[in-house]
């Protein structure tokens, strides 16, 4: 089992925690990580892009000029793609970009992402993340205490922590999330993974 340090809100070490090898100690599988990221990004697409083809643009019913004898290239419609105000060739139409991964691949990808943070020494555990009030300075102080000031950081809690969310939302490069909403893309996107101790235990319970 991986043994990681536990910090308080001041960034001071207050203990240690054993992380389960079944979740935080698996072999990093880059193939499933890639599949998970591709699926996540594809599923964010609305698929509402649309343009008109030559058949859908109004006008263009009359032949611009006679077929032969003018010296110009033959044309059948002023709404052909090569004309100004013409339709679009191979116009995009609304479609679904959804990519479905099976559950085993999803779980393995998430475990690989979490394990990669342990390998890179970029996983930090907090004993608590409770704030008395909405204060951005307190989150800044926490990150600086951990040596993460100015770095892209994902903070994960067990359940919605309103004061923490509102305190961190104005910091560029800092995002908060709950265990239920964890995804591979966010874990890999942010350089550091800061997780509250009870959230880490819940991750182990859910994905073990």
From TrEMBL:
Any one GO CC term of the record: ribosome
Example GO molecular function: structural constituent of ribosome
Gene Ontology BP term (one): translation
Record keyword RNA-binding present: yes
Domain of life (superkingdom): Bacteria
Keyword entries, A-Z: Ribonucleoprotein, Ribosomal protein, RNA-binding, rRNA-binding
Keyword Plastid set for record: no
InterPro entries the record matches: Ribosomal_uL4, Ribosomal_uL4-like, Ribosomal_uL4_dom_sf
Subunit description: Part of the 50S ribosomal subunit.
Family: Belongs to the universal ribosomal protein uL4 family.
Role noted for this protein: One of the primary rRNA binding proteins, this protein initially binds near the 5'-end of the 23S rRNA. It is important during the early stages of 50S assembly. It makes multiple contacts with different domains of the 23S rRNA in the assembled 50S subunit and ribosome.
Protein name: Large ribosomal subunit protein uL4
Species, as recorded: Feifania hominis
């Amino acid at each position: 089992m991986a043994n990681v340090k536990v910090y308080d809100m001041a960034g001071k070490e207050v203990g240690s925690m054993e992380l389960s090898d079944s979740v935080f100690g698996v072999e990093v599988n880059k193939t499933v990580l890639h599949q998970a990221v591709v699926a996540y990004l594809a599923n964010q697409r609305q698929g509402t892009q649309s343009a008109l083809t030559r058949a859908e643009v109004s006008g263009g019913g009359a032949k611009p000029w006679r077929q032969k004898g003018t010296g110009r290239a033959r044309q059948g419609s002023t709404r052909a793609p090569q004309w100004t105000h013409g339709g679009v060739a191979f116009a995009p139409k609304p479609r679904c970009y959804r990519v479905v991964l099976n559950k085993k691949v999803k779980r393995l990808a998430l475990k690989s992402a979490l394990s990669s943070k342990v390998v890179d020494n970029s996983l930090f555990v907090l004993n608590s993340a409770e704030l008395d009030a909405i204060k951005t300075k307190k989150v800044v102080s926490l990150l600086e205490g951990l040596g993460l000031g100015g770095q892209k950081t994902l903070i994960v809690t067990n359940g919605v922590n309103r004061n923490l969310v509102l305190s961190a939302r104005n910091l560029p490069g800092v995002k908060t999330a709950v265990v239920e909403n964890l995804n591979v893309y966010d874990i890999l996107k942010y350089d550091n993974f800061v997780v509250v101790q009870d959230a880490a235990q819940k991750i182990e319970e859910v994905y073990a």
